[in-house]
Structure formats: structure tokens, C-alpha cells
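Something for you to look into today, if you have time. Just paste the record in under my message, thanks.
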Amino acid sequence: LWWAIPFSFAVLCLASFMWAMKRYFKSDNEGAKKGKSLFAKLGTGAGILVVIGFMFAVEVPWQQSLLATICFGLSLLIFWTAIRATQSHRLDFAFSTDSPKLLIHRGPYRFIRHPIYTSYMLAWIAAPIATGHYWLVGILFGLGYFYLKAAALEEQSFLNSTSAEAYRTYLQRTGRFLPSLVAIIRRSSAQ
């Protein structure tokens, strides 16, 4: 039963991501509808591959299982704190063509510009660690490409909006998918 805990966390991640696709993200324009369709197909396929990976998992050392559980847990923590930080203003689906209306500075957005994509990537990293099937890392590269494209499009939308100046400042304080070490050093030396 070494795989039961990481598998439980994987299921929670997949269920959370599916919930967001169905109930949280808005898809009010053509770009967002295409993004929703793309990620629904790719995400469903990726989820099926992860479940198959667990069905045929090889025994991994307990340390590896623990690392996978931590990655899945961190994914869930970042995901749900990002959802909570944006609950008063639901986010558009990836590839939305709407102009951004609000710059969020709460929760994980204080450190990372795209924490939801970060949470997805942590889950896709955890799957091959948990199962010992390293071919699953292909999910990270495949979906990661689209997360990168979506993030770049969202950032460009902000830079072309009325919030452009505030967003430029925000860019200097945060990292795209991970906290910016330069910004952290600057903050700590300013204190």
C-alpha cells in the first residue's frame, strides 16, 4: 500500500482541477472557450495516463513516495489558496481574449504570477515520482508548453491594459511560475 497516499493526493488534485474547469473558470469569449476545450481534452487525457501509471506503478523507495506526496500536497495548497484569493473575481479560462480587469496581490499571487499553472505542474511532476513511470514526465512537457503560452498571453494582455504600469511593477516582484529569488533578496535587503 506504499502507493495509496500519493494516489489519494493525485485523485484530489485531478478532482480539484476538474472542478475548476467545470465550475470556476469563466469562458465568456471565443478565446476562453477554445482554451477550455483544449485543456479539457489534454487534462482528461493526462488524468487518464496518471491513473494508468498508478495502476501499473512500480515499487519506489518510501522517500520517493514521500516526495511525490509532498508535491501533490503543495499542488493542492497552491491551487486552493489561489482559488480563495480570487473567489471574489472568478478568473477567465486560459487564452481568454478579454482585457484583464483586476490585478490580484493576495495569497500565492504575492509571489507567483500564475500559481494555478504552478499547481498543475507540481501535480504532473509528482506523478512520475510516485509511480516510477518516468514517461509520465511527458505530460509536464506537453501541458507545460500550453501553460507557458497561456501565461505569456495573459501577461501581454495586462501589459496592453489600463493596468500596464502596475503590472510592470508586479512583474519585478514576482516570478512567472516560481517565486523570484531576485525579488526575495531585494525585499530582504530593504528590510
Remarks:
- The helical segments are 4-24, 30-55, 62-85, 115-131, 137-159, 164-173, 181-190.
- The two ends are 48 Å apart (CA to CA).
- The chain has a mean pLDDT of 93.
